[in-house]
Amino acid sequence: MSKPEWTQGDLTLTSAIVSRVEQAAREAYARDEEACGYLVGPSSRPRFADEAVELENLANKYHKVDPENHPRTGREYFKINALKFERAIEQGRAAGRPVKVFFHSHLDCGAYFSEEDAASMTMGGGEAPTHDLAYLVTAVDQGEVTAHRLFIWEAASKSFVEAPFQVDEG
What we know:
- The protein is of the alpha/beta class.
- The protein is built from four helices and nine strands.
- The protein has helices at residues 15-30, 59-65, 82-95, 115-121, and strands spanning 11-14, 36-40, 48-49, 51-55, 99-107, 134-141, 144-154, 159-163, 165-168.
- The termini are far apart.
């Protein structure tokens, strides 16, 4: 089965969802944690996303309860409710509005796809991502959004590479 078009990059995101991602990133920065969530859009327009859904970053809660087994905080990574995310993917597919992009923010370190991000999206460094998605990383430096970069899985190099995207101002 071929991969969905959105996994190839060259996506168009509405300005409204980019604004929502930026708001989530700034609010999460104020809580000293990474924002995370996903972008969806109509099946009929595979490279277009027009809705953003924020997910709760559970990293600080896990760290507070069990710092020995969860030494990093939400400032350094995100932890989501995987079951809730899986349900969103299934429901989106069934409704004709698939999840196309997973987004998260980085605090005071730039918009790049880290080794931790790659391990998280491939379930510990597997042969490919767990889900057929593109990945948007938003940099928040000193409380302000400074960059967005989109990444996709490149099978040949078995790595995440930057891909183009555009914002639809209309």
